[in-house]
Write a structure and sequence with these properties.
single chain, alpha+beta, seven-stranded antiparallel β-sheet
């Protein structure tokens, strides 16, 4: 997997919500990374402890989920898999949405073991605008663009985009039921992680369903701040993020102190 472009994720500009889609690499996205052994072991642990939180399948989405998993396994050169097996053996999380824009692309199934503060069990069967509703400003800024893109994306055309947040721990599983430490005014660069989400989107040719992938990794903020020129961009993103969005992301209490430290990095 190629080195990640942090300067693309943190441009020299004020923070704003943006789609920032780019052509994707399906094989590169879905194949195992160098951390696969540890990541897959953690996936299996959470799926065995709380399957109801991390794997969801609606009866009406059986064909769509089957096509999605068959396509992923074909991309990887592997035999077809059940949803339960795929949830444990694929590194990225995956969601399958109906491809019907008239229904606003409801969630039909998925395996989300490493959510960023949201619960799959609460999203099952819901249309996309309801899935996105908790994110302040997202529907207003990008809702129409997202719907247009999903309506027009060509079958098997691979697209990727990135998203980020900050956390006070390097845990991959941020399900809201877990009592995780929150960022506060005592945050430091070496105790804060950038939570990176690499996302993948394609349309399936038979059912026309949308396959959505989420690959999560954590990166210590002090390490990223050492990259020449990146600390100022990280600080700018923190300082210019909308207040309500910063609150949703759990950044508000820590962003002033982190921005100050980034200015000195």
């Amino acid at each position: 997997m190629p080195a990640f472009d942090w300067f693309r994720l943190f441009p020299d500009a004020s923070h704003r919500l943006a789609m920032n889609l780019r052509p994707g690499d399906a094989v590169g996205y879905w194949r195992d990374s160098e951390e696969a052994v540890e990541t897959l072991a953690e996936r299996r642990r959470w799926l065995m402890e709380h399957p109801e939180r991390h794997l969801g399948l609606l009866p009406e989405g059986r064909d769509e989920v089957s096509e999605a998993l068959a396509w992923i396994m074909k991309v990887l050169g592997q035999p077809e898999s059940t949803p339960e097996h795929a949830a444990m053996t694929l590194e990225p999380d995956w969601l399958v949405l109906s491809g019907d824009p008239a229904r606003d692309f409801p969630v039909l199934g998925g395996a989300v073991v490493f959510p960023s503060g949201w619960a799959l069990e609460e999203k099952m069967g819901r249309p996309l605008h309801e899935v996105h509703a908790p994110v302040p400003g997202l529907q207003q800024a990008l809702g129409a663009s997202i719907s247009t893109f999903l309506s027009r994306v060509a079958p098997l055309a691979a697209w990727e985009r990135d998203n980020w947040g900050l956390s006070a721990d390097p845990s991959l599983n941020h399900h809201p039921a877990r009592p995780l430490k929150r960022l506060d005014a005592a945050a430091t660069l070496d105790s804060t992680w950038v939570r990176l989400e690499r996302q993948f989107v394609t349309r399936l040719p038979v059912t026309q369903a949308i396959l959505f992938g989420i690959r999560v990794s954590n990166h210590r903020l002090d390490h990223l701040a050492m990259l020449p020129g990146l600390a100022s961009r990280l600080r700018q993103a923190l300082e210019t993020m909308d207040e309500t969005l910063a609150g949703y992301k759990g950044i508000t209490a820590a962003r002033e102190v982190l921005a100050t430290q980034l200015a000195l990095a």
